[in-house]
Write a structure and sequence with these properties.
single chain; about 350 residues; alpha/beta; Rossmann fold; seven-stranded parallel beta sheet; 11 helices
């Protein structure tokens, strides 16, 4: 007769084999599952006229997607359209303020007429206000929430009926590491990005049953060239200096092209969340494992930042100093020229 130990060993062996079999089957399923392709798909990129949105549009066109971009500044949008079309892409550029639901509905209708239903929505449009909390007004918070919460909601609701009807679709919400860890002197931005994370995660849970996959993207600093178009308050020259210097440092920031490729890969895989860049991953992990330590570090960083309650808003392009025009910000200046963040982009 087999001993009890022999029977237990036999059961353990069978259990191990079963687990291995299940794992192998799941792995084989992933290998055999058709890879999501952007070719022939209609993709809407909000805020696609410059910065990260423009870089995403370039990559999508290279993959054979039909791309619609939108932006509020018509001259910037027109430059983006001309550049993208020179590359032979199928592009539709639509002036649209995505914080206005009426304009959003009209934009989606125009895309439907030209390309058909939207297959992939990338909610990328954004705004940033930099300065101490006492320099921020309620309007700053409203603007951030309108852009990072309400606008993605409007665009999602506009494309959702067709996605549900067809039983498939992908939505990518570009939040930020600031949507996981609130960063000093970026409170309106961080608060609204936290709201977007909650909206995105909730939509993922509810829409998966309809065949719609939602990806929440939380990147760290990216060298898109955007500091020139960011709003600065308080001591705007000093605020612009620390922001643009951080944006230019390779070990703190990543290129917009690298970030865009990682975002599209996350969308292709249908990931629930993508933390893009090592700093974003470390900050998010630190916040989860050591929230009190993270809060203490944030408070320490805040004490080193300029303190000024001036509520006037000034663009980064109007806050230049010899320091921000030095070799230290060369990478950001090149990105601004490359990604249509300057008046005349280079090609």
């Amino acid at each position: 007769m087999a001993s009890r130990n022999d029977k237990d060993a036999s059961r353990l062996s069978l259990g191990t084999l079963a687990a291995a079999g299940i794992g192998a089957a799941l792995g084989l399923r992933r290998v055999l599952k058709p890879r999501f392709q952007f070719a022939g798909r209609t993709v809407l990129v909000t805020g696609g006229s410059r910065g990260l949105g423009l870089v995403l549009a370039r990559l999508l066109l290279k993959e054979g997607a039909r791309v619609a971009i939108c932006g509020r500044e018509e001259s910037t949008l027109e430059r983006a359209r001309e550049e993208l079309e020179r590359g032979g892409g199928d592009v539709l550029a639509i002036p649209c303020d995505v914080t206005d639901p009426v304009q959003v509905e009209a934009m989606v209708a125009a895309i439907h007429e030209r390309f058909g239903a939207v297959d992939v929505l990338i909610n990328n449009a954004g705004t940033i206000q930099v300065g101490p909390l006492e320099s921020m007004t309620l309007e700053d918070f409203r603007e951030a929430m309108d852009t990072h919460l309400w606008a993605p909601l409007y665009t999602t609701l506009a494309v959702l009926p067709e996605m549900k009807r067809r039983g498939h679709g992908r939505i990518v919400n570009i939040s930020s590491v600031g949507g996981r860890v609130s960063i000093p002197h970026l409170v309106p931005y961080a608060a609204s990005k936290f709201a977007l994370v909650g909206l995105s995660d909730g939509m993922r849970a509810e829409l998966r049953q309809d065949g719609i996959l939602v990806t929440t993207v939380c990147p760290g600093l990216m060298r898109t060239g955007s500091p020139r178009n960011v709003w600065f308050k308080g001591n705007h020259e000093k605020e612009y200096a620390w922001f643009s210097l951080g944006d230019s440092m390779p070990f703190l920031s990543m290129s917009a092209e690298t970030a865009a490729r990682k975002i599209l890969e996350a969308c292709r895989r249908g990931d629930g969340e993508a933390l893009v860049g090592l700093p974003a991953k470390l900050a998010s992990l630190g916040r989860a494992l050591a929230p009190n330590l993270t809060a203490a570090v944030s408070a320490f960083v805040n004490r080193s930042l300029p303190q000024d309650s001036n509520t006037d808003r000034v663009r980064g392009s109007e806050s230049e100093t010899p320091l921000t025009q030095s070799w230290l910000t060369e990478l950001t200046r090149r990105a601004a020229e490359r990604n249509n963040e300057s008046e005349v982009p280079i090609h």
